[in-house]
Amino acid sequence: MEDIQLWAVLAAAMSSFVLGSLWYGFVFQRLWAREAGVDPEKVPPLLRTFVGAFVLSLLAAFVFALFLGPSPQFRFAVGAGVLAGLCWVATSFGINYLFARRSMKLFLLDGGYHTLQFTLYGAVLGAWPV
Questions:
Q1: In the chain, where the domains are located
Q2: Full-prediction pTM beyond 0.70?
């Protein structure tokens, strides 16, 4: 655990925030709100939402760094990120969405985000200098 680059973990978590703001805030905002049944006019308590999301992103990035191990090769880290996002996270969402009868569009939006999120984690962690 002492070999984990904590600055890299922090940067990976921040990359998730940037991606999320682009993905859900600009590119797919209306589509996501419609498919998720969220009223974009009703804004939740932002501080609690963003702090909670950042803590969870930080935890995910840290555990992914533990999974990758110290100084992972870039290609391995990115490939592991794609597979973790697509095959662990997105498929888990898929199971929940099937039982909740959520739309395929929402599954693709959320699963796509998390696939890119973990791909970014891998890119940051794999590119970070030792």
A1: 6-127
A2: yes
